[in-house]
Design the sequence.
């Protein structure tokens, strides 16, 4: 074997050992970084109780088999709302939902104002068939982003569990349903902070379910 060949083999072995050692050292570091990100999430629903929430008059909210279940009869004109005890400003909010009957929504950055509708601010729309993932401002501008039926069909799974993510940072808002963007606003003048709330629409036969409710403050 020539000296040149020996040198090539020596260099190759040195690189191989160095790479293996680096991977060994970096792996725990990567795990720690990942764990740090995961630790920032806060569960807003413990799967057993409605601790951390309070209900406004209208409809009923129960916990059944690890799921928040909202019901309201068509004779109830008030919007039934399950409102977070805390207010939030900048965050990523994840909610898994199944819409069976009636028009529901996930409110965020809202003010509790009383009256039939109960709050003022944005809701990300939850519905069995229409407008899912759109942005509606209650006691404000009404529809701000209303998706078309064709758009909804691309990301929504009827009669199944769907996951919605709401990202609110500064004046920018993004809503995704099952990982696909359904609404996006830049430099929006709406509320910059407020409560989170789950909705039962008044005057409708309502049945809707929520689970895996968690938030990561930014």
Sequence:
């Amino acid at each position: 074997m020539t000296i040149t060949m020996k040198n090539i083999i020596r260099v190759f072995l040195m690189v191989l050992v160095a790479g293996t050692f680096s991977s060994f050292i970096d792996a725990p570091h990567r795990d720690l970084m990942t764990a740090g990100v995961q630790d920032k999430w806060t569960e807003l629903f413990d799967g057993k109780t409605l601790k951390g929430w309070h209900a406004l008059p209208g409809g009923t909210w129960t916990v059944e088999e690890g799921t928040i279940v909202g019901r309201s009869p068509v004779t109830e004109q008030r919007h039934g709302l399950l409102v977070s005890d805390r207010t939030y400003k900048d965050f990523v909010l994840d909610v898994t939902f199944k819409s069976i009957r009636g028009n529901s929504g996930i409110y965020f950055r809202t003010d509790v104002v009383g009256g039939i509708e109960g709050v003022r601010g944005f809701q990300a729309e939850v519905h069995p068939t229409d407008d899912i993932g759109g942005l509606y401002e209650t006691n404000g501008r009404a529809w701000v982003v209303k998706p078309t039926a064709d758009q909804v069909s691309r990301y929504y799974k009827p009669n199944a569990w769907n996951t919605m993510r709401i990202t609110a940072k500064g004046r920018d808002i993004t809503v995704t349903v099952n990982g696909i963007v359904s609404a996006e606003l830049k430099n929006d003048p709406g509320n910059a902070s407020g409560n989170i709330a789950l909705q039962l629409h008044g005057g409708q036969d309502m049945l809707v379910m929520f689970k895996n409710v968690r938030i990561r403050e930014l």
About this structure: The mean pLDDT is 88. The helical segments are 3-39, 149-155. The radius of gyration is 24 Å. DSSP finds two helices and 15 strands in the chain.
